[in-house]
Design goal:
Shape: elongated
CATH architecture of the largest domain: 2-Layer Sandwich
Number of strands: 7
Largest sheet: 5 strands, mixed
Number of helices: 9
Oligomer: single chain
Structural class: alpha/beta
CATH superfamily of the largest domain: Ribonuclease H-like superfamily/Ribonuclease H
Distance between the termini: 50 Å
CATH class of the largest domain: Alpha Beta
Strand content: 15-25%
Order of helices and strands: HEEHEHHEEHHHHHEE
Radius of gyration: 19 Å
Length: 259
C-alpha cells in the first residue's frame, strides 16, 4: 500500500505518473458506509478524461469535506464528463454474512465490473483487491490525494445518501435521512425503542447489544422481518457507452411475508 505526502487538494499526480508508464484508462475507487450501523456499503469506480481541461475539477474534494449541495452538483458533473462510472452495492445482510472488509472489497469489485470500459490500472483508497487481475495500487488517504479517487468518493456518497433517504420512507422512525445509518446518539435511541430494521447490520456491536438487551417479543413487528431480495438501480446519469441512466429509486425491495 502506497503512501504519499498529503497535498492540499486532490490532484492528478498519481494519474500522471501512471500515464507516463503507459497506462491510459485509470480508475479511481472508493467506498462509503463502511462504519455505518445500517444500510449498504457502496463503492464507485471513476475513470476521468486525462488530460482533462475541466474547471470544476478544482472543486473536487474528498466527499467528507463537502456539503450535500456541493456533492450533488459534482455528482452530476462527474457522471456527465467522466469516461466511465461504475457503482457497486452490498446490502446489510451480506455484510453480516461475510464481514465488512470483505463486503467493502466486494462492492469495489462490483464497481469495477460495471464500468463500461475496462480500466488498465486501479488506484484505490487504502485497500487492494487481491482477486482482481487488473494492475492496481492502494493509496493511504487516496480520497484526499487523487482526483479520480475523490470523484469516486463523491459518486459513492451521493448514491448511498439517496438510498438512505429512500429507506427513511420505507422504515420511518429511525431518522435514516438525517444520519444515513451511522451510529449517532439519535440513531441508537431510535434503535433501542424500535429494535432493528431489515437494513440494520445485526452483528455490529451497537445493534447486537440492543438485540441482546431486549426481549424477542419486542421484535415481532414488520420492522424486524428481513429482505427476501435486494435490487437497487443506482442513481444516474452515468456513462454506459454513451447512454445515460437516470433512475434514482431503489427497486424491488421485497420483504418476507409471514407464514
Amino acid at each position: 500500500m502506497k503512501t504519499k505526502a498529503l497535498s492540499r487538494f486532490p490532484n492528478f499526480d498519481e494519474e500522471n505518473e501512471l500515464e507516463s508508464q503507459g497506462y491510459e484508462l485509470i480508475a479511481g475507487i472508493d467506498e462509503v458506509g463502511r462504519g455505518a450501523l445500517a444500510g449498504p456499503v457502496v463503492a464507485s469506480a471513476v475513470i476521468l478524461p486525462h488530460p482533462a481541461n475541466l474547471a470544476w475539477l478544482g472543486l473536487v474534494r474528498d466527499s467528507k469535506q463537502l456539503n450535500s449541495r456541493q456533492r450533488e452538483s459534482l455528482f452530476d458533473l462527474i457522471n456527465r464528463e467522466a469516461v466511465a462510472v461504475g457503482i457497486g452495492i452490498v446490502p446489510s445482510q451480506v455484510i453480516d454474512s461475510i464481514n465488512i472488509l470483505k463486503a467493502t472489497k466486494l462492492a469495489m469489485m462490483q464497481a469495477v465490473e460495471k464500468l463500461p470500459k475496462q480500466p488498465h490500472f486501479l488506484i484505490i483508497d487504502r485497500v487492494t483487491l487481491s482477486q482482481c487481475p487488473i494492475p492496481q495500487r492502494g493509496i493511504t488517504r487516496g480520497d484526499k490525494l487523487c482526483l479520480s479517487i475523490a470523484c469516486a468518493s463523491i459518486v459513492a456518497k451521493v448514491t448511498r445518501d439517496r438510498m438512505m433517504e429512500e429507506f427513511d420512507q420505507i422504515y420511518p422512525g429511525y431518522g435514516f435521512a438525517q444520519h444515513k445509518g451511522y451510529g449517532t446518539g439519535e440513531h441508537i435511541s431510535c434503535l433501542r425503542k424500535l429494535g432493528p430494521s431489515p437494513i440494520h447490520r445485526l452483528y455490529f456491536a451497537p445493534v447486537r447489544d440492543v438485540i441482546a438487551g431486549q426481549s424477542l417479543d419486542h421484535f415481532a413487528s414488520g420492522h424486524s422481518k428481513p429482505f427476501a431480495s435486494f435490487d437497487f438501480e443506482p442513481p444516474g446519469p452515468y456513462h454506459s457507452e454513451g447512454a445515460p441512466m437516470r433512475s434514482r429509486r431503489p427497486k424491488n425491495l421485497i420483504r418476507h411475508k409471514s407464514g
